[in-house]
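hey m, so remember when u said the tokens were messed up on ur end? i reran from scratch. heres the input so u can diff it against urs
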Amino acid sequence: MNWDLMDVIEATGATPSRLPERQTVLTGISTDTRALAPGNLFVALRGERFDGHAFVDAAVGGGAAAVLVEDPAALREEIPCLFVPNTLRAYGALAGAYRKSLKARVTAITGSTGKTTTKEMTAAILSRKYKVATTQKNENNRVGVPKTLLAIPPDTEAAVVEMGSSLPGEIALLTEIARPDTALLTNIAPVHLKRLGTISGVRMEKSALFWRAPGDALRCINRDDPEIQKIPLNAGWPILTFGTGKEAQIRAEGIEPMGLEGTRFTLVHEGERILIALPLLGPHQVRNALAAAAAGVAEGVSLTDIKAALESFQPLEKRLEPIVLSSGSVILNDTYNASPAATVLALETLAMFRGAFLTIALLGDMLELGENSAKYHEEVGARCARLGIERLGITGDYRESTRRGALKEGLEKAKTFFFDDADSLLENLPELGASPVMVLVKGSRALRMERFIDPLRRYFGEKGGTA
């Protein structure tokens, strides 16, 4: 989209260093000089590890037609320079202005777990009927959501925007920028407690999607989530509920695991029923599918098309992604991130395969849990033991807490071990016997648990457990 310089000034409230003699038309908006195209407006954002003001010269050299800055020292004479107190807020204001020009209906998705999977499922469902744009990768924060909106082509019919939060007020701000037509909250669980404080703080933060969305926006509500049920609702809001109970407008019945092939269930809406074979591991994925189905129904997608989209959906990388080895063993790569709720869901999925596989959980720390971090790790260890997981390997600063919880619930100490690197991990793994092995690998992103996937693949696949 082309931008008139005066439109940028109006949207952001920027003060120009000077106005050009001729009207400047900007060919787009960029925050990264590596992706900047000639004629773009360059927005100099500040982050924890970078400062875009250091790249103003590079932006001008790369053909930027104007720059938006908050540091007067970065102002240039060659091109129009726009000055604002906060470039991040200005960037959001530009995205909000562009959003108002779009004809696309916007579905906004947030929640403590399952956001990305639900977002991708929703996009797949809506793509059966509409031209769709969606959040790429994990660009769901105060930089990513404006970037997503600004990248939506004008002829887009439906957009799916994922919203994440680690600070109070982020969801409210992002919702006001995106102005969704449908607001969908997957669930509420203890995440980012270091900054959000308590589960009540998480609920207040996530519920801002409902409270800051336009009054006529449809709210899609998970009837199975007890924390969501605590959110006060405005009687005038349009509401669509989903869940596994009979009171849900869109519900799943007859949920049945199909081993490594996924989970089967019947999707029900207004008396219509359709059987769906979801090729994802874990019954919790049915809840993500229900949420996406609700978003699809909201936009007029038929249950037949919803079935086709869900049955062709593939596991996302590093999100309970099954890696089936030639030896018959399986690695569950769930290394994208970790929270107590997500880790328990992964452990429950692993436990489903007890008997058919020797089950091993390799767990790293769950970060940003605040002053109760040790308690949450101990609870995860306890759950691991109660589920009957047969081996538990642990890494990270909270390893003792996790093992303490497992031992309290009866897991033998000899069946637990600590590891710091691939060598110490492989030293503690059992040899591959008559039964194949299923190994879950999970931890917060900062621990880079994905670095253990290839060693495990070689150990249980190529070497057959004889490292």
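this time it looks ok to me. The first strand starts at residue 3 and ends at 4. if urs says something different then somethings off w ur setup not the seq
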